[in-house]
Amino acid sequence: MKIDPKTFIHDYQLNICIQCGTCTGGCPVKFRSPLNMRRLVRETHLTDNFSSISKRAELWACTTCSTCSLRCPSGVKNVELIMGIRNFLANKGEVPSTIRDALENTLLQGNPWGRFRDRRADWAQDLGVKIFGEETSETLFYVGCAPSYDPRVQSVSTSLVRIFQKAGVDFAILGKKESCCGNEIRRMGEQALFKKLAKDNTALFKKLGVKRIITISPHCYNAFKNEYPDLNIPVQHYTQVLVDLIEAGKLHLSKELGISVTYHDPCFLGKQNKVFDEPRKILNSIPGCDFIEMERSRERSLCCEGGGGRMWAEGGTEGKRNGEIRIREAVALAAKTLATACPFCLLTFEDSVKTSGLAEQIVVKDIAELVMEALEVQ
Amino acid sequence: MNIAVCVKRIPKTAEADIFIEKDGKDIKKDNLVFALNDWDGYAVREAVLLKEKYEGEVIVLTIGPEESKEVLTRCLAMGADRAVRIEAPSSSDGHLIAKILAQATKGQSFDLILTGVQAEDDGWGQVGVALAQLLGLPHASIVTHIEVENGKAKVRRELEGGIEELLEVKLPAVLTIQTGINEPKYVSLSAILDAEDKETKEVGLEEIGFTSKAPLDATIDQVSFPPTGKMAEILKGTPEEVVGQLTEIIKKKKG
Amino acid sequence: MLEIFVLVEHRQGQIRDLTYEMLGLGEKLANQQGTSFAAILLGHDVKSFAEDLATRAPKVLVVEDENLKNFNSILYQQTLSSLISKYQPCLLLMGHSALGMDLAPSLSVEMEFPLATDCIGLSFEGARLKATRSIYGGKVNASVSLRESKGYIATIRPGVFSPKMVGEKKGGIVMESSPLQGMVDVKKFIEYIEAPITGEDITQAEILISVGQGIGGPEHIPLFEELAKNLGGTISCSRPVVDRNWLPKERQVGISGKTVKPKVYLAIGISGAFQHVTAMQGSDTIIAINKDPRAPIFGVAHYGIVDDFQNVIPVLKEKTKSWK
Lengths: 378, 255, 324
Fold this sequence. Notes:
The structure holds 3 protein chains of 3 kinds. By secondary structure, chain A is α/β, with parallel strands linked by helices.
């Protein structure tokens, strides 16, 4: 598949850009990299020498949080442009070595870390979870790569399993047959691999008779909901499921946690998919959970920099990470817990807590973990 | 400059759970994923770089069953021009492999034949150099740099202790390629899908005139798990506790 | 009686340690077979080597030729095939090294001797050679039978067999005439290339912070540099890190890199392939940090931490800030 950068103007509507700079103004990495979205749109529109633009390291700094596209008054598809350029580079084989590894690993092992495919469901071994193939269900609990393999995020997966079991939700996981959803793969520029994953996953879900999908990661949620062309199966982020369960009286959050919590809206859940209220409803249902809103919340949430393949990209940015800024904002609110609902946010914040030396003052938790704590009988 | 590259499809075992087959002669492979041998990937990339510099054609060869075709497709996507699969069961007898490859390449006008230094799976590190002997060609193994001029290749070989040696080898020659000789490129799925349309020639042993029925030099009697030695004392606890123990150890040991 | 030959490895005026390990193995096998072993020394001006070797082997066969000054597989092969034809040894041992890997396969084809490479065990069953090899990246060992033959060649993994110590009796030195007729022009040695050390010399460091592919990417290197600064140590690495250009070659610990013996060796995200382990197992204290509890590095480390380095190193860095 050859990519012609000339079609970018039409595909991403570069010619309707009014150069207002709103995109650059809202960009979360504008202070951390030379990436200047307004200029990039203009230059790509007018250039005779696209390949010199495509060589810029800062193209890999974009987190695809989509603040720019969502705020653009004209409707320029900035993030799609970034992905288009990355696709051009991926097809030429010119991607940073760590991105290369992530993409090759996904083709080979079904996850960007290259962890062994057969170990994907090891985390669930002793939890009594139904696995498609051995048993069946109408509800697929799609775990995702980080929640399957990363020890920190596995605790979210485990919590959700226990919560669902307690609430009597009938569900099954794919086990070893689960593969990456491809959301980040597409954002790293590998459109063809994304299409293959979408096709294979869709076929698998349909063959198994899946009627509903629950995801842990907002990134998987986004891919299934917005980017899988032929899926046609309702998808829910787990926060939406938990709200339903709480409202239906199926989850009795009884334990007083006695904590002050603030919440970070993940980009792929909040601003991109407008799931703002559910996480807040859950936090407000937890007894002894004093919820404080952050200044930059909902649409204005500051991207943690974990998206858009940034989990695997090297460099391209400098200075203080957004994760650290976010931790400091939370500490300034006197919150003792920073809650979020995304594996990447969780991991970047865990790093930032350590690098900022604020581990004594704040902990990072996924909402699922807090719900699990509130469920536990004393 | 016409270059042949001999490649192998291997199972990836680094992170895998390993089980031994019932007959005890190999590991179970049905739970493993397969890929192009790492060293061979560098060799193919090097051949393509040489082709870009000196023009010519890159032909990749592999010996193996139907499934080995996937590594040839990958090589074509990397820029090889033609691919040949020699239908034969996989064998861990390096001498036999070298004899088949010699039969398949002899009489053709290759300036260079490249192989990886060794295979990730059984690691004999034997085929390239044995092939050179069978073809009556000079060779250099563990090559980390190649420059071609006036019918000769100036090559660097990796020795022990961070030292290299510079050699001059007259072409045609066989070189076995070490990892790190070049920067691998990402091979996109769309390049692989495009390459699937390119032709892979499939030949049997009789077709290439290989008739030897000589006994194998080496046969595996059995495989077994290596004895586990003394294991490290594992420091346990929260990261803070672990680091506490760790700093004590470092303090004490660094003197 | 058919002897066992051990090909002496030397380079730039030094006998390589692997030679002594092969002599140790050669003696063991010779005893087992009721035969003798001999060191085969090819080179130029190697008299002092012959004297040294005679203290460890009952016989040293020497071929002196100025064309053998530096290793050239073609000249070595010509010399060895003539010696083999003359003495008919039952086994020729070589290192599984840059030398042996360049020579053994072609010599094996020429002599029609079956070859076992990278052996970690060797024994005779009757007159038939059996080898143990470590395969699939060290996950399993394979017992290999070689076909019946009057002679065998085996290349030996470095660092596996105990070296032959200096004995009481001194062996004989036999000078053999060189079969070579000058140089060959199809393969010529030009020179050794040793990359100059531009940073710190890792072989001199007392504390090494050594990183592997498991650190994920070069963006983490500054973190380890800071830690190294706190500890008064130096950064080193394993091969994949060099192959990926995350660190320069001079930082590589391994057979093809540097051999190190620091007081403290902190291995982070290094799985522990033998090429790496061989070159660092002499360190006084080895501490390994790795996510995978089954990583072979824990078999050589004294202390281990099974965790993501990102959970440990930043904390360690903070805690050691005051050490500077």
